[in-house]
């Protein structure tokens, strides 16, 4: 299966089936096309098929694509690790930043977001399984970051993003996703107006949707094999 339209149909069907199994509506889960290491032409192709939101994790690569595709109405999400010296470009050129896990980054994004651009949509990245090789804050740190975000201008805290550990045990996968959802619900109970739970990729989107995901991030299964 190589045709973009066929890959998109398959991914959308998986999302719909997962939602049905979970007693949810397919419209409750949005699709973020992870376009890292894919050329601008691929993004154009999927945009003609109705995809507007694209995720990138390398800043310079993303900026080049944005320049090439500035004539299109696209929504750009940054989903990679964030260095302090890159926050201005993120604040100026993206609509979403999903990988915020430190107070310094959060404050720099708020300070550097142009007023005329409108609020920058933020997801806090939680390292729910405390894996040392991954980015993300602990659950305890997330509660603190969310409280800080509520007092900052030019950003809008939308929710959480997570990349739980890879495991062949469905029970462990469910547990990781469930703990992210419970943290999300705790933040709402504390008064935060959140609507986005970004979790689930090609290999685990069904479990993520069953546990409450509102956004799945799909790369290879949607756009095909990446360029090296």
Which characteristics define this entry?
single chain, 228 residues, alpha/beta, 42% helix
Your description of this structure?
- This protein is an alpha/beta fold and about 230 residues long.
- It has helices at about 5-20, 40-50, 60-70, 85-95, 105-110, 140-150, 170-190, 205-210, 220-225, and strands at about 30-35, 55, 75-80, 95-100, 120-125, 155-160, 195-200, 215-220.
- The longest helix has 20 residues, at about 170-190.
- The chain has 9 helices and 8 strands.
- It has one domain (about 5-225): TIM Barrel, CATH 3.20.20.
- The two termini are about 20 Å apart.
- The mean pLDDT is about 95.
- α4 (about 85-95) packs across α5 (about 105-110).
- The radius of gyration is 17 Å and the shape is globular.
Major sheet summary line: 8 strands, parallel
Low-pLDDT regions = none
Question: Would you tell me which CATH topology applies?
Answer: TIM Barrel
Q: Strand portion, in percent?
A: 15-25%
- Contiguous helical run count: 9
Count structural domains.
1
DSSP helix fraction:
40-55%
| N→C terminal distance | 21 Å
Secondary-structure element order, as H and E? HEHEHEHEHEHEHEHEH
């Amino acid at each position: 299966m190589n045709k973009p339209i066929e890959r998109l149909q398959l991914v959308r069907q998986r999302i719909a089936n997962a939602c049905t199994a979970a007693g949810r509506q397919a419209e409750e889960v949005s699709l973020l096309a992870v376009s890292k290491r894919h050329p601008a032409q691929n993004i154009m192709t999927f945009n003609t098929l109705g995809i507007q939101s694209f995720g990138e994790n390398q800043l310079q690569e993303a900026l080049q694509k944005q320049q090439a595709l500035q004539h299109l109405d696209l929504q750009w999400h940054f989903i990679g690790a964030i260095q302090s010296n890159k926050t201005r470009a993120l604040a100026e050129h993206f609509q979403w930043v999903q990988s915020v896990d430190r107070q310094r980054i959060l404050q720099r994004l708020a300070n550097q977001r142009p007023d005329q651009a409108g609020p920058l949509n933020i997801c806090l990245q939680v390292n729910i399984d405390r894996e040392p090789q991954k980015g993300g804050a602990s659950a305890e740190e997330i509660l603190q970051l969310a409280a800080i975000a509520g007092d900052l201008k030019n950003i809008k805290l939308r929710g959480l993003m997570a990349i739980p550990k890879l495991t062949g045990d469905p029970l462990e996968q469910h547990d990781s996703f469930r703990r992210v959802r419970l943290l999300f619900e705790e933040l709402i109970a504390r008064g935060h107006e959140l609507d986005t739970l970004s979790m689930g990729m090609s290999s685990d989107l069904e479990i993520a949707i069953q546990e409450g995901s509102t956004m799945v991030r799909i790369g290879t299964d949607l756009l095909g094999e990446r360029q090296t």
